[in-house]
Predict the structure.
Amino acid sequence: MWRLKIAEGGNNPYLYSTNNFVGRQIWEFDPNYGSPEERAEVEQARDHFWKHRHEVKPNSDLLWRMQFLREKQFEQTIPQVKIEDGEEISYEKATTTLKRAVNFFAALQADDGHWPAEIAGPQYFMQPLVMCVYITGHLNSVFPPEYQKEILRSLYAHQNEDGGWGFHIEGHSTMFCTALSYICMRLLGEGPDGGLNGACTKARKWILDHGSVTYIPSWGKTWLSILGLCEWAGSNPMPPEFWILPSFLPMHPAKMWCYCRMVYMPMSYLYGKRFVGPITPLILQLREELYAQPYEEIKWRSIRHLCAKEDLYYPHPLLQDLMWDSLYILTEPLLNRWPFNKLRERALQTTMRHIHYEDENSRYITIGCVEKSLCMLACWVEDPDGVCYKKHLARVPDYLWVAEDGMKMQSFGSQEWDAGFGIQALLASGFTDEIGPTLKKGHEFIKASQVKDNPSGDFKSMYRHISKGSWTFSDQDHGWQVSDCTAEGLKCCLLLSTMPPEIVGEKMNPEQLYDAVNVILSLQSKNGGLAAWEPAGASDWLEILNPTEFFADIVIEHEYVECTASAMQALVLFKKLYLMHRRKEIENFLIGASGYLEKIQMQDGSWYGNWGICFTYGTWFALGGLAAAGKTYENCLAVQKGVKFLLETQMEDSGWGESYKSCPEKKYIPLERGSNLVHTAWAMMGLIHARQMERDATPLHKAARLLINLQLENGDFPQQEITGVFMKNCMLHYPLYKNIYPMWALAEYRKHVLMQL
């Protein structure tokens, strides 16, 4: 039976941590763990998900919840309440529902103070990792039989009815994810017609019906070339010489968005080496299965620009194709001949030096899952027996997550992100006396997770920004600063610093708060908006060079509504408590940030959300930021328009529900099924920021009634549609959102609406 372990490093000599593994969450299979009744409960959860997998595609993340609730002997002792038709919501019933939610959420807290959770959804994370360890010969040691069983369970559970796999679990089938999933099933031992319910047969039919893997996007061509299922001649060039370009050039690596930089760094190394894994009998079989013509007859040069229409989100402009053709025809032949091959050798060495630097500064976690598999493979290619590859292997468990729908590879983790919002929701409830130990543990986790140092050495020469004082999305070991994670962490520490230390623990040292402020201020752009990871400022025209087909706006760093609004709220609170620290800079920051939010508002009054779905999410953040800066419905047209948008999109069932399709299509699209409780909570809090209750509280009463009546018997809330997104076109599943945001919205409703009646 599977068991989640928290903040453990074990005795692995290749594993190390900056804070004793606080926030680490890894799964372990123990054949002797669990009673027959507990195992039956797990099987029941799996069976329920399978039967309803086409209705609700995200899992409820039940396995660790069952474990924690069992270990803590949790029992919901507060009776459930419902609001009948025509009944007004009483303060008492709202309080009862809120207490039940708080009790349940507190029981889910880990011993180190964070709340574990899956963060997955994209269907191209796990397959490259399986390919990587297949190539290196470590497939069965990294993924023993029970692991392989759960990976296959996940693949079967999220196969679409047409036989393919979507870019994410709610998406239409794509060549990229269908081909990777088919290959993954075959590497894990399934035959060409094997798999549950003919999974392999259906997948191969989908691939061949859509033109074969010659139409896989560029990332897919890279992995197929690495695996020996495509020739490198079928890929556009990724020259490692990019990493030795002069810094004055507009397309220098330092000007790239960090995730783009980190993906193409190991890709360019593997491309420059023209690395191909062992050509095993299985690889030869796959060559026959994946193409519509004999492998030897394929004209590889002709497939470089091919991409299935199902995968194409960002069509490459002609200028970019001309650039790839020039590199392919003219530059690459030169760089592979003497004396220019000396330049390639130098470029490969430089690229590998950057890979090692990033690995060391993330404790071999790397910035994310796509990069993890590539960097790990690059280290093995450089030295199969080297310590760097072994350190990479030691961090693979950090990425694996098990739920009732099987094992996935996570983007990495959302420990700090979820904890920051969860603590604010708990604080908003006002039940400090009842949940003091929970708040104290959460406070300790937040403090222990702050990044204490900048990246090592001359970090600017390695294209890195300051990180001292920041918070990451996940844990301290990860090391990558994020502006809104820093803002939310800072807000938690500031709020908790005003409370009795005997209840919530000692407040954070002011110098550490100043460090956080320093990071936030450093990330504001000239337009007033805030970037997420590193300062924005590179030329927008560089996005023309976006080499991917399924993402938009990934070449350079941009400003984001959520980051800007989070920072505004944090700095306003900081300014109240530390009035004189960088006072003028903070005031100027707020003026610029307010102007940015007002400037980028959409015509319909909404704001585009970059990390949640979508206009509902962005509007909640923007209204919160504007309110913090003193903007009100009476003195700010942007607030009026934002309120109008939310009121006009409230659904007939009294909630809000927005389709994930709003994100890629960049226009508001309502859910067909009806409202979503997380979206409803976001909209409620946005309206409360704008003081809607002072004009007409009816929309808030109706929405609160919906949330109260959706609460489950144990205090949990039901899992509905996926709620997270990144890079406009790929959705992320945050299972804790269904606990955090309804609880937070009801807390704000109880405090600001019902208490004022």
Remarks:
- Strands lie at 2-6, 25-29, 165-166, 173-174, 400-403, 406-409, 530-531, 559-560, 724-726, 730-732.
- The chain has a mean pLDDT of 97.
- DSSP finds 28 helices and ten strands in the chain.
- The CA atoms of residues 4 and 408 lie 14 Å apart.
